[in-house]
## 1
Amino acid sequence: MPRPASTLEDTTAFIGGGNMARSLVGGMVARGADPAAIHVAEPVDALREALARDFGVRVHADAGDAVAGAGTWVFAVKPQVMRTVCEGLAARAGDARPLAVSIAAGITTAQLSAWLGGDAAVVRAMPNTPALLGAGVTGLYANAAVDAAGRERAASLLSATGETVWIADEALMDAVTAVSGSGPAYVFLLAEAMEDAARAQGLPADAARTLVTQTLLGAARMLTEAGEPPAGLRRRVTSPGGTTQAAIEAFEAGGLRTLVAEAIAAATLRGRELSAAND
Ligand SMILES: NC(=O)C1=CN([C@@H]2O[C@H](COP(=O)(O)OP(=O)(O)OC[C@H]3O[C@@H](n4cnc5c(N)ncnc54)[C@H](O)[C@@H]3O)[C@@H](O)[C@H]2O)C=CC1
Ligand SMILES: O=C(O)[C@@H]1CCC=N1
């Protein structure tokens, strides 16, 4: 059924309705976006139905149906299928000239533009899953075909889910992916390790869960609200000769900083490999 003309430019189509699209859609709707102006293409029935049920957005099995009349197309499929998905929509993109926003790790704006038929306006965005709570952060890079209105549209879409940071050099988007795109998983890994250690010290599981999660929440709030760099906050917890110092010395002796640097370098490299593997 044709959509009313008033919704056309303002409509956002998601191609892919998996984990990250769900976080973005949930964040947008929670912050007042009109669900009727969000269309999602997702081939998996259960995911599609859950998006419609939970957020009231319009869902489609077919990407062509989702993008019809939408001014912004958000590509939220895995890097490995991005080329096929874009090429399948290239003819429509040539006619509609949408703003294309990709959230895929590794895939470059040059690849996306070429797969969409050439000279497409493409924003490469790297959000993260706290977007669902409006607590995300997104790195953004726009190719030369994106005008000021397109940059504004992309930033406004992603800012519904948290902070946005424009990145001037696209080569740095793989580092953004490694730091903030993947970053929530590092914190969850730390939480797992702290809970395991708490239980190993004899704490009951439910107490360990509460102690760890509230500690991470409180520390994250201090990082964002105290206006002080992390090293200063750490020093103020660390009494000379006290318990924290004993733990910090164990972390440093175990090479925590080197390990974190190696992990982020590995993720950055993987982003570059995803680009090369899908060329
Ligand atoms: N999960 C995360 O924390 C983040 C993921 N990303 C990026 O987001 C993208 C999606 O990742 P996830 O949501 O984690 O993966 P996912 O696998 O949960 O979602 C991808 C969805 O695309 C659907 N799909 C496959 N072919 C399709 C087609 N032809 N048309 C429409 N939908 C199709 C799949 O059924 C699946 O539900 C990836 O490119 C990833 O690099 C970016 C930032 C963070
Ligand atoms: O693991 C991945 O490849 C995606 C990109 C950033 C977070 N998840």
## 2
Amino acid sequence: MASTKVKIPTIDFCNLELKPNTPQWESTKVQVFEALQEFGCFEAIYDKVPNEIREGMFDNLKEVFDFPLSKLIEYREKPFHIYDGKIPSIPLYGSVSSADLVLPNSVETFANTFWSDGNPNFSNVAKSYFKQLMELYEMVTKMVLESLGLKNYIDEILSSNFFVSRFTNYKVIKGEGENKSKLPPHTDSGYLTIIKQNQNGLQVLYKNGEWIELNNTSPNSYIVLSANDFMAWTNNSLTSAEHRVVPTRDKDRLSIQLFSIPHPDYTVKDPKRISG
Ligand SMILES: O=C(O)CCC(=O)C(=O)O
Ligand SMILES: [Fe+2]
């Protein structure tokens, strides 16, 4: 059962004055660092993604998971595109992932696979959605490095990653039970993951052994999780959040994830150790 006792911090990123070296930046930075140390995650209130963009993402994604399986398989046949589904232990889970933000025209490749007219609306909406979330990623990364006294490494870390986006559907079939789409506990690879869910279900494991429900359904709310490579890079200063998904409602749950992952040729090491 998820606990109601411990609460994941909610951090406000809406302030227009939120720029490095301002008092707002300094106080937000403290909250970000403490949350990632203690919980490995927080809820960001971030208003830079217009409502119609975010809603457009979910509307388009509903259609993707209604396409026949053959489309999903066709999608998987393209380089750097992954479809996970029909997993025997969680048959109602399905996701499509793409290294879409590094490969030119990759959003269009995605759209062309699923929609015969290439769905220009999807491409526009997706580019805008991820652009704004990459800015949130950049702010959080800078705040962590400044908190660690590693300001000089900000450019290095920001240029060491690529982004992967994943769209996930947790199908609910009446009478089938939640276990068929439940995502088992895990930590993510990469630096940070930013998640938007259309209904709750994401839970994070706190150090006292309790699973805490992440509330992320208000329009401007996004979950930021720190992942394994950031924990390693910071020499365990941050926690890599162990999380799982337990869909509880009686309609399909959709979520969108943005993962930032170090390039395969980048060596993830605590910079203090690199410099001796
Ligand atoms: O669906 C979610 O909210 C999270 C999914 C997740 O943890 C993952 O794909 O790694
Ligand atoms: Fe995950």
